[in-house]
Write a structure and sequence with these properties.
The protein is mainly beta. It is built from no helices and 11 strands. The strands form 2 sheets. Strands 2, 4, 5, 6, 9, 10 and 11 form a 7-stranded mixed β-sheet that branches. It has a 4-stranded antiparallel β-sheet with strand order 1-3-8-7, with no helix packed on it.
Length: 126
């Protein structure tokens, strides 16, 4: 069992930056692949970024490549999402998720993750 708690969301102006954190409970965090997803109002939840248990490889949605960076610190049981050059299109609730096993077809899908946090709101004002 893994419990996830996101933090770091908030209101930021377009062009600004935020760093999200996801703290995980449990001693087996280092065995889990981790992902970030987001859901904008009226839209389905979408993949943002993912990182393997060993920190490589990483994966990004095309919409965030070059602007967002996912990283993890297994000693702190935490995964991060550094978000730069934010736009209003990045507004939404951001969720972190954990997957013990990955498949190429599921690592960018929410159905590929077993555990989810409650989410943190990110609002980008234009």
């Amino acid at each position: 069992q893994v419990q996830l708690v996101e933090s770091g969301g908030g209101l930021v102006q377009a062009g600004g930056s935020l760093r999200l954190s996801c703290a995980a409970s449990g001693r087996t965090f280092s065995r889990y692949n981790m992902g970030w997803f987001r859901q904008a109002p009226g839209k389905e939840r979408e993949f943002v970024a993912a990182i393997s248990w060993s920190s490589q490889p990483t994966y990004y949605a095309d919409s965030v490549k070059g602007r967002f960076t996912i990283s993890r610190d297994n000693a702190k049981n935490t995964v991060y999402l550094q978000m730069n050059s934010l736009t209003s299109e990045d507004t939404g609730v951001y969720y972190c998720a954990a997957a013990q096993y990955w498949q190429p077809s599921t690592r960018i899908r929410d159905t590929g993750y077993e555990y989810w946090g409650q989410g943190t709101q990110v609002t980008v004002s234009s």
